[in-house]
Amino acid sequence: MAGDSLNSGAGPTAPLPVTLLTGFLGAGKTTLLNRLLRQLGMEGTAVLVNEFGEIGLDHLLVESLDEEAVLLQAGCLCCTIRGDLARALEGIARRVRDGQALRRVVIETTGLADPLPILQTLMADPATARHFILDGVVTVIDAVNGQATLDRQPEAVRQVAVADRLLVSKADLADPAALQALRARLRGINPTVVPRILDAAPVSITGLGPAAVPQRAAVLRDWLAEAAVGHDQGDHHHGHAHGDQGHRHGHDPNRHDSRIHAFALRFDTPLPWDGLATWLEMLAATRSDAVLRVKGILDLQGQERPVAIHGVQSVWHAPTLLPAWPAEVPRQSVLVFILRDLPRAVIEDGIAAFCAAAVPTVFTPERAASGGD
Ligand SMILES: Nc1nc2c(ncn2[C@@H]2O[C@H](COP(=O)(O)OP(=O)(O)OP(=O)(O)O)[C@@H](O)[C@H]2O)c(=O)[nH]1
């Protein structure tokens, strides 16, 4: 069963992918959603809209949703979320059982929402985790107000930090220098994602993996390439799991961002599942306050296929075996960490120590599901 530990239970069958669409108040989430819902491939999208305040209006502003839009009860999604969101998703699962051709869910959060409790609900609630899988977190940042929002609002920084895709809106209203400064700041908070400007070009908010269980090699290739961007920010290449101990801490010039940082680690030789899983579980159990999100594609000892893992604070989704390594991508593990007040060296040293001490084992999903031996 998902939601307990990294070694617990097999994944659900054919779960509906869920995209979390965040961004601060007025950033342009609804505008983007309206545009996306008209795009090919977005048919069968159920939209959950959450609002802050007495009267919800956004669901009226989201066009072309018909019966598929569900307005979550007024109230801050991150505060009152667990029951409401789980119930709303349960309703969607019921509709699918009744034969409605729903293919994905988009949750548009209130601008004030902290995305983490929402992610936790998706993964920790057993019934929810059976029917749904997190596809990705998409965060919209307003090019005009983004900097000021990040200065003032810690939740906006968290929205950027945990994002799988960063989309900058209102670039048409911002001057180029300001836009550049904003992009640099976003890269500082989350160097594992390349911010994209929202312009007339087609944009996708789906298949962001690894949580999406990418079935297409192209998705996996793009994810690995983008996550590797984290190396620009003082990362280094790990020759092997217990290799180089050298490291640099991310130096963030923005004081309001400085508690949260994201980086990617890369390992060229196959990792021992037991050592890595034990370390990650221990980390999540003891420092769930500091571990906002972990995601990765792994090359594991004794396993020919890539394995996707992802966790939010102390909650882990069951590891997923992906179809194959794309031909043109070097086989290597990429692990992305989004941390608060936890030095990168703690992660690097912990992984190195646990992997060095691990007895070589063969990873299989069944073995991971049974908790190891
Ligand atoms: N010029 C310009 N205006 C935009 C752009 N994106 C959104 N807007 C405008 O910004 C305003 C807010 O956009 P919404 O899509 O309602 O923003 P939101 O994030 O859903 O807002 P809340 O639900 O209040 O958090 C609207 O007036 C949009 O027309 C953009 O790229 N350029």
Walk me through what this model shows.
It is globular and about 55 Å long. A hairpin with an 8-residue loop joins strand 9 and strand 10 (307-312). Helix content is 33%, strand content 20%. It contains 12 helices and 13 strands. The protein folds into 2 domains: 16-197, Rossmann fold (3-Layer(aba) Sandwich); 217-369, Hypothetical Protein Yjia, Chain: A,domain 2, CATH 3.30.1220. By secondary structure, the protein is of the alpha/beta class. Residues 23, 25-31, 58, 111, 169-170, 172-173, 198 line the site of guanosine-5'-triphosphate. Guanosine-5'-triphosphate is lined by residues 23, 25-31, 58, 111, 169-170, 172-173, 198.
How is the topology of this model organized?
Layout: E1 16-23, H1 29-37, E2 45-49, H2 58-61, E3 69-71, H3 77-97, E4 104-108, H4 115-124, H5 126-131, E5 132-142, H6 146-152, H7 154-161, E6 165-169, H8 176-189, E7 196-197, H9 217-227, E8 260-267, H10 273-286, E9 291-298, E10 307-312, E11 315-316, E12 320-321, E13 333-340, H11 344-357, H12 365-369
Parallel strand pairs: 1-4, 1-5, 2-3, 2-4, 5-6, 6-7
Antiparallel strand pairs: 8-13, 9-10, 9-13, 10-11, 10-12
Helix pairs in contact: 3-4, 6-7, 10-11
Bound molecules: guanosine-5'-triphosphate.
Guanosine-5'-triphosphate (GTP) binds at residues 23, 25-31, 58, 111, 169-170, 172-173, 198.
Protein name: GTP-binding protein
InterPro entries: CobW-likC_sf, CobW-like_C, CobW/HypB/UreG_nucleotide-bd, P-loop_NTPase, Zinc-reg_GTPase_activator
Keywords: Chaperone, Hydrolase, Nucleotide-binding
